[in-house]
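Quick one, T. Sequence first:
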Amino acid sequence: MAIPFTQIPAALLVPGQYQEVDASAAGAVGEIKRALIIAYRSAAGKAPAGAPLRVMAEDRAASLFGHGSPAALMARAFLELNRVEECHVLPVDAPEAATPWQRTFAVAGTALGAGAAAITVCGRRLDAAAVAQGAAPEAVAAAIVARINGELWVPVEAAANGAEVTVRAVVPGAWGNAITVEVESQADGIVVDAGMPTPGAQEANIRPLLRALGNVRFHYIASDFTDPANVLALADELDDRFTAGRQIGGRAFLALAGELGTASEPDTILGRAAGINNPHLVLLPRGDHPALPGEWSARWCAAAGRILADDPAANTSDLLIPGLAPATFPDADTRQAMLMAGVATFRADSAGNVLAERLVTSFNENSDGGRDTSFLDIQVPETVDAIRSHINAEARRRFGRWKLASTEENFGAGALVMTAGVFRAFLCELYQQEFILRRRWCQDFEGYKNSLVVEVKAGSKTRLEYRHNPNLIGQFLIGAGKLQFV
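Structure tokens:
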């Protein structure tokens, strides 16, 4: 048996005892799991736009991206639920021509007694602004402004002009159109009239920023950009990352706001979903919930990513998504329509908390326009990615310096010579011991073994080719029975 050495020369003549250390048979194959948040920074943020940064604390996120910015708010939401996966943020600058969402409130009257002005931002009730007896409208307006600007974790800032209060998004652009602000007088004699919101305009183009990410792998992505052009850019990037040339696949979570609608209504959830159809994008039905869409995507990304990072084939049904509590939930017929359209669904527990029901991808139609369920659930691309990554990493670890032979003759015990038979045995071993017994990602070993085709390419002395058909395990989501009583 010939033992291959890398550090001890075969022609060594100097007497002594020599041992080289080889760790190739030790340890386990694994990956660092990274999450990426894609969102706007504010002008107060210290971090430059376009370069992803790892964030480990909420205060650090606020310093880097600006208090109240979508990037800081989404990082905070993610870190509340998940500090295991690495959290990275790709900060984006708003376009120069962008205008902010804003709303003006007019204060009138004189306070007949001590009271308060109640303020609600994106469904969150802030501590009320105190109103003193006899306070004039200008004083009440100033108190409202001070209260809003004293709250660091809201996406708005306020300014007073006499008895008028103008509240605007901290970052300009159309993203702010999901913001809701209400101011209500709780002081006798004081009236607060709310004007109609002025929508923000313009979206950044994130396509160049996605290309600049290079080959760093981000397994889970929460994006605050849901306009068609940026959704297409993200879909194209994830498709490219999933290809054989890159093999750094990941899944992204996008929250869609607005009415459910139908596939023929372009501005509704189902209408927007109809134009996406991608196996790496998970669409979340935020609807009219007051929490920002970015917070929805960040919280779902954090909670689902934590489960799938440990087991890509894990059943995510009834996974709690803390911090979200919609007032209404879709009925069963509506959820069926959503799932058919490639929109994930959730239900509620007795306390009104959001529980993931079925995390489907947006892919539901093949190139011929027919119904295609090959990537229906997020577990499918997750498990396929995991199987491919594990085989590649394990093959590099075991066979990094081997030779290749096109014959199956006996090269002697311990020979570092790859053949089709050796690689076939390697795949069978991984499938049975790792993918079935240890990780439970797959099933049907006999079927897999019979599906294997492994061969050295004709005329080549360097290329081994193989085709294999893993039978992925599924999720127990539906039990259908018929009770026939007599």
